[in-house]
Specification:
Elements (H helix, E strand, L loop, with lengths): L14 E3 L1 H12 L7 E5 L8 E2 L1 E5 L7 E5 L2 E5 L4 H4 L2 E7 L4 E6 L5 E2 L5 E3 L1
Parallel strand pairs: 1-7, 2-6
Antiparallel strand pairs: 2-4, 3-10, 5-6, 7-8, 9-10
Length: 120
């Protein structure tokens, strides 16, 4: 009987974080409420197109959440949202009028006019 060896490899993160999004996560963690262990990205059902992006503080790990460690803190991705986000890039953009996370999501088939929600 031949012994089978299994090789594992590191899998790429579900979402690519730009340096500015990593810096914003670090800023958020510096101001985080007591007990926060990171921030969590999820895609709740809402908005004109069906799903929206939501980033909130998280106080505990959930079994199926994706975990991305950055120098300034941990980004968790809701386990139920990972399939909608694979291959996405998360950026932080600020200008004179707005500031917020911006997502380049190859899985989005459409979005609403205001850019707050998307369909897959």
């Amino acid at each position: 009987m031949t012994e089978v060896q299994t090789k594992t490899r590191a899998r790429p993160a579900a979402v690519i974080l730009t340096p500015t999004s990593q810096a914003r996560i670090a800023d958020l963690m510096r101001q985080a409420p007591e007990g926060a262990i990171g921030v969590k990205l999820s895609t709740p059902k809402r908005g004109c197109s069906g799903l929206a992006y939501s980033v909130d503080y998280v106080t505990e790990e959930t079994k199926f959440d994706e975990k991305i460690e950055t120098p300034g803190g941990v980004l968790y991705i809701d386990g139920a949202s990972v399939l909608y986000l694979i291959g996405s890039t998360m950026d932080w953009v600020e200008d004179d009028f707005t500031a917020g996370f911006v997502f380049n999501n190859p899985n989005a088939k459409g979005s609403c006019g205001c850019g707050e929600s998307f369909t897959v």
